[in-house]
Design a protein that fits this description.
This protein is an all-alpha fold. It has 3 helices and no strands.
Length: 77
């Protein structure tokens, strides 16, 4: 999870002008962030992670507003 404070600190450390295109700043920030993350890999490989979805039949919400639980149920049917 990337924290807003990390982006603010990046902006301060790199003396980024307020007139700089936001997408340019974000692109450079994520390039730097991803290189830092790849230097510290997770203690397990992605093939070792198993996601288990609970079984259940999907029912469309009455009020039309979907929740994260609705999404899990939708993919599980």
């Amino acid at each position: 999870m990337i924290k807003y404070g990390d982006l603010v600190q990046y902006t301060k450390d790199n003396h980024i002008n307020w007139d700089t295109d936001l997408f340019e700043v974000l692109r450079e920030f994520f390039e730097q962030y991803s290189s830092q993350v790849s230097e510290h890999p997770l203690p397990y490989s992605s093939s070792e992670v198993t996601v288990i979805f609970p079984k259940g039949e999907f029912v469309e919400p009455i009020d039309g507003e979907y929740t994260s639980e609705d999404l899990l149920n939708l993919f599980n049917t």
